[in-house]
Amino acid sequence: MMNITLPTLLLVEDDPNDIMLFRRAKDKTNLANPLQVVEDGEAAVAYLSGQGQYADRNRYPLPALVLLDLKLPRKSGLEVLAWLREQPGLRRLPVVVMTSSKESTDVGLAYDLGANSYLVKPVAFDNLLEMIKALGLYWFILNEKPDINPSIGG
């Protein structure tokens, strides 16, 4: 049997309830991609830059997709997104903002800062299941992925 490493999904979410619901929905939809979770904006930056406890890329692989909440402690989701888009080796990393805010200013700012998609967290669990199924299908199967770490210069 071949050992295929599936791309990792990074969930940046501070609400323990939302994390638990996401894990449950991920399992129910049979999305096999490994899930890493960080609970604040500073931890997201540390994870993505491979610093501190996240230095081991075998244990904490660079994700193929980041699901980013906006309302986070220590550094907001928008600050994380702005930081990420300034990093030469990470700026192409797909980021889906997944938040409870429907505020048009939040939506606009997220896209201005380089979000690839903006989703409002569904209230009903069945709707969350559908969203995760669609996320997995679109981002891990249908979507053509960029070279995350292109050679700089040229």
TrEMBL record:
One of its GO terms (biological process) is phosphorelay signal transduction system. The modification 4-aspartylphosphate is found at residue 69. Pfam families: Response_reg. Residues 8-136 form the Response regulatory domain. PROSITE patterns: RESPONSE_REGULATORY. The keyword Nuclease does not apply. Keywords: Phosphoprotein. This is Response regulator. It comes from Sulfuriferula multivorans.
